[in-house]
Specification:
With 254 residues, the protein is of the alpha+beta class.
């Protein structure tokens, strides 16, 4: 993510802010944003360095670690570095919409306990994978996009992802998908639909195996209904949310 030598080549810079005694006199923006070029340099400084739980806010030995909003920091910085501003926006938006996050947790409460008001106790593993602390025989996963929040519950490893369809960026496909997957998208009559079919299947898979994006997305293919990892077979199943501009897949251990 970012540029491996970026933190050596570029000094850290923060956006200038108006003095507190001045900013309280109005309701306008009080930060002066860095230029796009400078923002891309700052994005280059993030190099997926392996800082524990960078992408998952967790309590460790009584101390908070990582992003409390579970923002996908390395991916977001990498997209900024490469100038993919729109995709960076959607990546950030994916994890900081409080209403959808609350909706997903209410779904989890209902799926496990049959009551949205009966809270499920859960935690996350080192890779950010969700697990139930009181019922470890159930495997759960959450996702949200646009106006939808979704939840998957299974008796084996499971991952779910939903994406609101938008114009796809084939540069992302070339960087993160296999050559066969990129060719599949290019040959499809509806490239956006094909792109997000591959994207949601990949995300549901990495969520099911619990590694997140620590494994390269182009190191495995999702063009068939199954894929293999660590000697195990994982299956994909598509679900409809009643609208054509959404794509949703569940990945589960066979």
């Amino acid at each position: 993510m970012g540029k491996p030598t970026g933190f050596l080549e570029y000094e850290r810079k923060n956006a200038k802010a108006e003095a507190p005694l001045e900013r309280i006199k109005h309701f306008n923006e009080f930060h002066t944003p860095l230029s796009h070029e400078e923002q891309q340099k700052q994005g280059a400084r993030c190099m997926a360095c392996g800082v524990p739980f960078c992408q998952a806010g967790q309590m460790i030995m009584g101390m908070a670690s990582g992003c409390p909003l579970h923002n996908l920091v390395p991916e977001w910085n990498d997209l900024i570095y490469h100038g993919n501003w729109e995709e960076a926006y959607y990546r950030l938006k994916k994890t900081n919409k409080k209403s959808q996050s609350i909706g997903a947790e209410l779904l989890l409460n209902y799926a496990v306990n049959g009551d949205i008001k009966k809270t499920v106790e859960w935690d996350t593993e080192n890779g950010g994978k969700l697990y139930l602390t009181q019922n470890k025989d159930l495997y759960v996963n959450l996702s949200h996009s646009g106006g939808y929040a979704v939840c998957a519950v299974h008796n084996k490893d499971v991952g779910i992802d939903i994406q609101h369809l938008r114009e796809c960026d084939m540069n992302l496909a070339k960087r993160f998908f296999t050559a066969e997957e990129t060719e599949y998208i290019n040959c499809s009559a509806d490239k956006n639909n094909a792109f997000f079919e591959v994207w949601t299947k990949k995300e549901s898979f990495v969520k099911a195996i619990g590694t997140g994006l620590t494994i390269p997305l182009n190191s495995f293919s999702v063009l068939s209904d199954t894929t293999r990892y660590d000697g195990k077979t994982y299956c994909f199943k598509e679900y409809s949310v009643g609208e054509d501009d959404y794509k949703m897949f569940v990945c589960y251990l066979s």
